[in-house]
Amino acid sequence: MSLAVQDDGWRLSDALWAQLKPLLPVYQPPSHPLGCHRRRIEDRVVMEGILFVLRTGCQWNALNATGICSSSTAHRRFLEWVEAGVFARFRQAGVLKYDELQGIDWSWLSLDGTMTKAPPAGSKTGRNPTDRGTQGVKRSLLTEGAGLPLAVAIDGANRHDMKLTRTTLEGIIVPRPAPTPERPQGLCLDAGYDYDEVRTIAAELGFTPHIRQRGEEAEAVVRHPDFKPRRWVVERTHSWMNRFRRLLVRWEKRDDTYLAMVHLALGIITWRATGLLG
Asked: How far apart are CA 170 and CA 129, in angstroms?
């Protein structure tokens, strides 16, 4: 899937900016006894700086050499928008629009976690047991049938996938229809979720768990040509997220700023899926 940015990889398209702009707080210029103050950098320019950091994974200070805007301006505005909940609302608006235009497939959902490095450590990080104990972050993601992200949760890399099941399922960002016997909501999971606790949580929240062992779906496709694998869509969405290099390696020490970057990336993926961005 191509991302909703122009060829240079960080300038916002007009269509994407049209979705972001209404979510930004209204700027109130400060009063000055002499009636003057430094000209404010336009929000769109600053958002392009933030997107540059998200796409490349560079340090904030690297913005000073790009000519986009200063690192201090971009980071200060980023923190203001994090506090205002801009990025979470951007993602939520995208999911609602996707449901309106394409329709969320609630019949089959997929849940999976992945681990990435987190060199600065910080909150909600931990030692990665699969990477020599280096600091890392666990990212738990829930997608609908076509792979659209519906919920995300983060914790330390030492946190088992199954321990994030409830937090992730309860974090669905839009209203969820109630499952019925005629329209059940299947929850596709891998062997890492093969625990009674997971089955209990799924049943409590109205999901029907389908837990596959390693290689089981691939084997089923070979044996039954009409078999449709389900869980791969969440792995694909994790891969799309890692194209945003700021998520491939976590450099934010604060969990709220890291989550804001996650919301921005997922929001772009979601808005692209609506078909409104060209």
From this structure: 27
